[in-house]
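TASK: fixed-backbone design
INPUT:
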């Protein structure tokens, strides 16, 4: 899994399904079209 954070609100989501696509997507939390920046990769990470 690769987690990315919303540049606007900091929400983290797994965008591994979007590998190779532009990182500009709508944020489900702040509802802004934002740039997602990579945070970390991991297997079985829990918060």
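OUTPUT:
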């Amino acid at each position: 899994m690769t987690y990315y954070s919303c540049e606007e609100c900091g929400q983290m989501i797994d965008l591994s399904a979007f590998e190779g696509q532009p990182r500009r997507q709508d944020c489900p939390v702040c509802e802004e079209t934002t740039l997602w920046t990579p945070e970390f990769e991991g297997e079985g990470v829990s918060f």
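COMMENT: Residues 4 and 38 are 4 Å apart (CA to CA).
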